[in-house]
Amino acid sequence: MFEGFTLETIELPGATLRVRHGGRGTPVLLLHGHPRTHATWHRVAPLLAESHRVVCPDLRGFGQSSKPADRPDHANSSKRAKAQDGVDLMRRLGFERFAVVGHDRGSYTAFRLAMDHPAAVTRLAVLDGVPILEALERCDARFAQAWWHWFFYAQPDKPERAILADPDAWYGGSAAAMGDEEAYRDFRRAIHDPATVHGMMEDYRAGLGIDRAHDAADRAAGRTLACPVLALWSLRDDLEALYGDVLAVWRPWAPDLRGRGLDCGHHMAEEAPEELAGELLRFLSGAPTG
Known about the structure:
By secondary structure, this protein is α/β, with parallel strands linked by helices. The protein contains 15 helices and 8 strands. It has an 8-stranded mixed beta sheet, with helices on both faces. The model has no long low-confidence stretch (mean pLDDT 97).
């Protein structure tokens, strides 16, 4: 897994991150979602590394990265805090400007990174996500039924107790589905670790409060994304069912926008790695996508 990549632990001002990086060329930061670790990129990262320096961290609170101290407003688990980690990490590796790709919960951190640090981000790709504010403002009975976990995970204590009673039954997954036995072991290690499960729940608690407030403040100030944006979503997941035209949701935030759906399930980096890598490579090169 990740042949030719370096695996190390890097201490930053706000967190200590487990990081896998390799390749040569213009830099790109890949941010995973819940409940995965950076290992979710094991099929995509080597394809990108043929022409890019690829950096794959475990987000703070996830995987084997450090777990932030709890705060009443969950600011230490906010996407703003995780975005700052991304900037600090890339600077530590020698990159002041870079592209960023985020999937699922990682897409919210990637979005926040591009909003908060426009001078650092050359291009932004968001996979299977829309801004948290947009999702919550569109919340209806269909959303609540499909994405009930957003609200359950944001409750104190009980989500951790429910998940840790039987993490394998809760999250499912298999080596065959993930495409690699080592990636599956890494995933299982994360979901069986009480501190990691708590860190992942804190990400959702931040989402319903401080992250939503950050999005609302940006919209009130008229701020939009300064870089080109690629939105990709899974056709076998529920983004189109919930929002219809996904690009229409993103357009007020992203003046330079393109995107499409991919014929796969939610974990696109594991299910459709070649197609995803092809879309990302075209986007990162400036060529037309889709």
